[in-house]
């Protein structure tokens, strides 16, 4: 059974309602509507849906769909539109019946003139509309023949007082008679991304991640393209097991939709269009040189008039109206035309060697080592070796490098050279979101007799890690690769870099020492001044306490030495090290710049962890909303490109964030999912974050035994560790032990952290360790320790830890009946509220209530802010002044003062004058209605 027209319309709710209102006459007497949009955007589908619903409503629907070959046939469109009404012609007056019969070809005689035709058609429609409403639907109106257009224009201008509606559709930029009718126009835009995803997934659910992403990019929201593009791919191509061509094959419908105007252009314009389609990055000046355009001429002018492309006059950039127009132009050209266009472009690009090499390679039909070497050298050495490059040539460099190396491999006459180039392409593809292509490229490279290179092992290890999270297998492969490299004494720096980076990725996600030892052994083969970024990352993870000051300085110097567009694999190890040392905040701009540069066609596998690192830094500095936005961005990017490993890492981080916010159910759900995935794979760091999330969730809900169990599972030793994330969990370990009555254990944890030197890593770990020492101390000794912790330099830079220590200090002060408890508890509460840490905010609120101060929560807290005058009155009343004395000082009547006091008592959570002083101490002076934000603790 076929579905009704319009049943699968996605993202067209507003348009459908508009058409329904028009058909039902709820449009204020408007006679019609013109739908305008690009090819394949869904105009016809909307017309079909409107017609189907009109029929269901009892409306008579008349349809005409114009085509180019009938544009010269007089009254062909009217014939198609009105022929179903031919029996009604008998009811017309004789002269009108004669005209209608001649339009239908049922009577002899010449074609009627347009005025006679218009009046006869108007009479015919009026006769039909007596029985029921009429909807006229005309598709592709620019191809309606001139006689029909004139008659229809006459009719449409005269039907506003009859139950007749005219609905038409035309391509954007195409002229038609509707332009002169002053009809309302509805522009039909491409689908927004969520609707495009919905439509593609509903029609083609089996697409591989990279294929799905490519379809979405090429279709650019065009509904016809979303339905048709995958249809031309093989099953293995759709699943991602075979590569997609640079230009996707087009179905007949797509080729007709996007290339129909090309054939009517002059030959020189078609040639120039082909050049622009073959290299969309070139500008107008290159086209002019390649096409041999004479001064003053504009060979692309006809294409612009046909609305196929735009030319930015300022920079000469050429932009096709739709990406598929480019594909259609290339598909229409024969192989010889494409080769000649490539050669012409190569001749015009002598100043851009990498593009020249690419075009020469595309024009070549057989092996050619010279061209293969040129492509190899031009495959963006800036990306491979970190050399400076122009920003526009760095964006998308990685994906371009993959294509260049694959083509270089195809042109290589020697199997060894072919294998090497394909291995490099496979390695790059692990970073560019082309994981589906990696096994095929490595398999093709493996056909050579030579043994696999270190880079082949690195590419395989990256695939195992990014796709399946199999870091054990990746570790074994890399150990073998290092053994082979040592045996062969290869000088290929790219092999070494690839192995080291893959090994670093494995190492930072495990607590086992073997990967780190292997990495250290590999680093020892280089001079101390080489592989600086990876060395610093090694030290930040393995020896952060040995010479922490020197390590932080080394990081700062390394960041300062980076160029503005540093190679991603130089920047990411430094950023990892900086996060481990709590030192990323000064260098965030470099990471953000790299993300912006690489996220679109570049090193996706670097952009995703970069987003995660920024997320970690934002969480640490109390910008939780920003952190979750970065995490969501990373999740979407990872999911779109099939990086399941990074998806899991980000979800683990978000589990901890949910726990800190007090959403225990979400935290447990996310952490259980993370543990289920990470535990069988031995990814201990990811497991640790999951246990940390469960610990925080349990603490927030007062389940301290569960919190103690979970935090104890983070490190196998159960003791504080300088590893990741152990260095940030000393306070968690100690607080869980103290809350469950294990005071001796808590003090042993403090001593172990001190012995390990965790406090030396950063100002954040110093604060954590100092706070933990105060929490574990004897009641008589805790006060000075709390004061010392909160007085540490830069303590307030870490709001989550700072507020937790303030809360613990306030609790201790309350137990000792010190009225200063309210000040620290109130400051902690304000920070927790600002962060969005609901469970901890409630704990602080409960402690404040125990001191006699009632604090509102949620929206009421905002309403509880004192005005400036209320604050003045409260402070004077708190020191013992009477209402009259206060009134004399503030020039108010004593009754007004009493009224103010009556209103401010509920805001402070008190019921009498006697509690004013304590309440004001718990509510800092910045918390007034005029304050711009929460007071700084």
Structure description:
The protein has 937 residues and is mainly alpha-helical. Helix content is 61%, strand content 4%. The protein has 49 helices and seven strands. The strands form two sheets. A five-stranded parallel beta sheet has the order 2-3-4-1-5, sandwiched between helices. The chain has a two-stranded antiparallel ribbon with strand order 6-7. The longest helix has 18 residues, at 471-488. 50% of the residues are buried.
Q: Oligomeric form of this entry?
A: single chain
Strand order, sheet with most strands: 2-3-4-1-5
Determine the structural class based on helices, strands and strand pairing. mainly alpha
Principal-axes geometry comes out as: flat
How large, in whole angstroms, is the Cα Rg?
36 Å
Q: In what range is the share of β-strand residues?
A: under 5%
Low-confidence stretches: 384-396, 928-937
Produce the secondary structure layout.
Elements: H1 13-23, E1 32-37, H2 43-56, E2 60-65, H3 76-82, H4 94-104, H5 114-129, E3 134-139, H6 146-156, E4 164-171, E5 185-188, H7 193-203, H8 209-219, H9 223-228, H10 235-239, H11 252-259, H12 267-278, H13 284-290, H14 301-305, E6 309-311, E7 318-320, H15 323-332, H16 335-348, H17 353-363, H18 369-378, H19 381-385, H20 391-394, H21 397-411, H22 415-429, H23 438-445, H24 454-468, H25 471-488, H26 493-507, H27 513-523, H28 532-542, H29 548-561, H30 568-580, H31 588-598, H32 604-620, H33 624-641, H34 644-661, H35 664-678, H36 684-700, H37 704-712, H38 730-739, H39 743-756, H40 763-776, H41 779-790, H42 799-815, H43 821-835, H44 838-850, H45 859-863, H46 868-878, H47 883-890, H48 894-908, H49 916-922
Helix pairs in contact: 1-2, 4-5, 5-6, 11-15, 12-15, 12-16, 13-16, 16-17, 17-18, 18-21, 21-22, 22-23, 22-24, 24-25, 24-26, 25-26, 26-27, 27-28, 28-29, 28-30, 29-30, 30-31, 30-32, 31-32, 32-33, 32-34, 33-34, 34-35, 34-36, 35-36, 36-37, 37-38, 38-39, 38-40, 39-40, 40-41, 40-42, 41-42, 42-43, 42-44, ...
